[in-house]
Write a structure and sequence with these properties.
The complex is a heterodimer.
Chain A (H helix, E strand, L loop, with lengths): L2 H15 L1 H27 L6 H24 L2 H7 L1 H6 L6 H30 L8 H28 L3 H30 L3 H9 L2 H12 L8 H41 L3
Helix pairs in contact in A: 1-6, 2-3, 2-6, 3-6, 3-7, 3-8, 3-10, 6-7, 6-11, 7-8, 7-10, 7-11, 9-11, 10-11
Chain B lengths: L2 E12 L2 E12 L3 E5 L6 H8 L6 E6 L2 E2 L10 E4 L11 H12 L25 H13 L5 E5 L7 H18 L2 E5 L12 E6 L2 E7 H20 L1
Parallel strand pairs in B: 3-8, 3-9, 6-7, 7-8
Antiparallel strand pairs in B: 1-2, 1-4, 4-5, 9-10
């Protein structure tokens, strides 16, 4: 078994046993169930079919909570091992140091995906009663986008964890990043775009630099929402690239948000003192 | 005896100043060296550099092979950090398995007597500080590397744990030619247990004492005194 896989397995086991991860996972599953049941009731009362209302709410839930969990999980990984001395013991073994960062990313992403899988799984069981076959792509896009945002968040968290020297610092940066990405960027851009006369290039840039926004728009695209539901940035993307092009651009962006921070983390692990 | 460890002009600089200054050291196979010096003298930093955990200028060779970024260059090193806090929920077996897999050795290759480390299924959270330290020590000895870098290995151990540790270390030295550097803030306490004493101060290796020579001289003096007395 490769060192990366060994570290991934170790991180996975420790993560799924951590109390706060279990609590956050339970909260996520509970919220998924509540949201789905409420939407399910609305659908039946209005005599509608399909999963639209439920999936629209699950999009926001699926972007916000998993991204926070991912950032916190990643941020607390390498730096906590550094503080405890475990990192030194691991890196003194005949392995590449970068495999510790990759292993942490894989293990923690696996743990977060398991948690999300349980939450979404329960929701899907409830939604199975009203879902149509045409809803499957929408659900698949929603779950895919959520999992990608979660992986990107873990990757950013692991990067932060390799660059700072204390766990408090790492967690503070992770929380700050989450606030900025989930609220700050959108609000700032919405306020500044008109006054700064932001052109198409700046609008595109503002979407691509925020993986949460990219994930949200991608998930909504699958649900066939258009216009205001996608927000100004989503509407702009649709107009410029069309639906398939937008899906490709956003998917590529999320993949980059997974790969680039991980590369920085691997490099930091290889070059910096432990 | 061939040199196992060779350190040439090792320098370690921090932004705030020197961490280690022009360390030169050669150790043959089959010796136990005590690394002493006051707090902050650079003992842990030196061990971390030798283990490949900190960047430095200069050259470190083990068995003639340069220790660098290549993982294979660390195959012959066993390292024990000064403090190791293992995850509370993990079991002893999981910790040992992790390091055995990373090292690529069988987990039964720990050269410690049965019972030194508690049972595999026990969680770290129920272990005392000393018992946790024994687990970390077991991890450092996995696969019996030819160079052991042990940062205050007996600090948390009780008397029995210390005695067993020294017995095992001497056996590894005598039977397998293992070389060990054992850091301690008070190396004088290790007299009689180690072969060499390395003294550090302010990031420099200021003195090396071959205690084997002292021991042989003491033994010779003792024999001469006995002869004179008998005569």
């Amino acid at each position: 078994m490769s060192a990366t896989n060994v570290v991934a397995g170790w991180q996975y086991r420790n993560s799924v046993r951590a109390r706060w991860v279990l609590i956050m996972g339970a909260i996520f599953a509970l919220m998924c169930v509540v949201v789905t049941l409420l939407a399910f009731r609305t659908v039946r009362e209005l005599g509608l079919t399909g999963i639209g209302p439920a999936s629209a709410t699950l999009v926001n839930l699926g972007v916000l909570l998993p991204s926070l969990m991912g950032l916190l999980l990643g941020a607390g990984s390498v730096v906590a091992d550094r503080e405890s001395g475990m990192l030194s013991m691991m890196c003194a073994q005949p392995i590449r140091r970068s495999s510790v960062a990759t292993g942490a990313f894989l293990g923690l992403t696996g743990s977060l995906w398991s948690t999300l899988g349980i939450g979404f799984g329960v929701s899907m069981l409830i939604l199975a009663g009203v879902a149509k076959s045409s809803d499957v792509p929408a659900l698949a896009t929603l779950i895919g986008a959520t999992f990608a945002v979660a992986a990107g968040s873990v990757s950013i968290g692991v990067m932060v964890s390799t660059l700072v020297r204390s766990r408090v610092q790492a967690v503070s940066i992770a929380v700050g990043l989450w606030i900025v990405l989930s609220l700050g960027v959108d609000l700032a851009l919405a306020a500044l775009a008109p006054s700064l006369h932001m052109g198409p290039g700046a609008l595109l840039f503002s979407i691509l630099v925020n993986p949460l926004e990219a994930g949200r728009i991608l998930a909504l695209l699958g649900t066939n929402f258009h216009g205001t539901a996608l927000g100004p940035f989503g509407a702009y993307l649709l107009e410029r690239f069309g639906k398939v092009g937008t899906v490709l651009v956003l998917s590529g962006d999320l993949l980059a948000w997974i790969a680039l921070p991980l590369m920085v983390a691997r490099r930091a692990m290889s070059r910096n003192d432990l | 005896m061939p040199e196992l460890l060779s350190v040439e002009h090792l320098n370690k600089a921090y932004r705030s100043g020197w961490g280690l200054h022009d360390i030169n050291l050669e150790l043959p196979s089959g010796v136990i060296a005590a690394l002493g010096g006051p707090n902050g003298s650079g003992k842990s930093t030196l061990l971390r550099c030798l283990a490949g955990l900190s960047r430095y200028e200069g050259a470190v060779r083990i068995g003639g092979r340069l220790v660098d970024g290549d993982p294979a260059s660390r195959e012959d090193i066993g390292y024990l950090a000064q403090t190791v806090a293992m995850p509370e929920q993990a079991t002893i077996g999981e910790v040992i398995d992790l390091f055995a897999q990373l090292r690529g050795v069988d987990r039964d290759t720990i050269p410690l007597p049965e019972g030194y480390v508690r049972e595999d299924h026990q969680r770290i959270e129920i272990l005392s500080g000393g018992q946790r330290h024994r687990v970390a020590l077991a991890v450092a000895l996995l696969g019996t590397p030819s160079l052991l870098l042990l940062d205050e290995p007996v600090a948390n151990l009780d008397e029995q744990g210390r005695a067993t540790f020294w017995r095992v270390l001497r056996r590894l030295r005598d039977e397998r030619g293992v070389t060990a550097i054992v850091s301690s803030p008070s190396p004088s306490e290790l007299r009689g247990l180690v072969d060499l004493a390395l003294h550090m101060d302010d990031g420099s290796l200021v003195r090396q004492e071959d205690l084997r020579v002292d021991a042989e001289r003491d033994q010779d003096n003792g024999q001469a005194y006995a002869k004179e007395t008998c005569a």
